[in-house]
Amino acid sequence: MPTSKKPRKPSPRAAGGGELLKLPDPTALERIWRDLGAGPGDDALDEAQDLVYEAWDTPDGRSRSALARQALKLSPFCADAWLILAERPSLGAKDRRDFLERAVKAGELALGEDGFGEYAGHFWGFLETRPYMRARHRLAEDLWQAGDRDAAIGHLREMLVLNPGDNQGLRSVLLAWLLAMHDDAGAEDLLRAHSDEASTFIRYTQALFAFRKSDDGSVARRAVEDAWECNHHVPTLLARKNRIRYEDTGYYTLGGEDEAAYYVEEYGFAWSETPGAVDWLTEATKRLKPRLRGGRPDVPLH
Question: Which domains does the chain have, with CATH numbers?
Answer without folding.
Answer: 23-165 (1.25.40), 199-300 (no CATH)
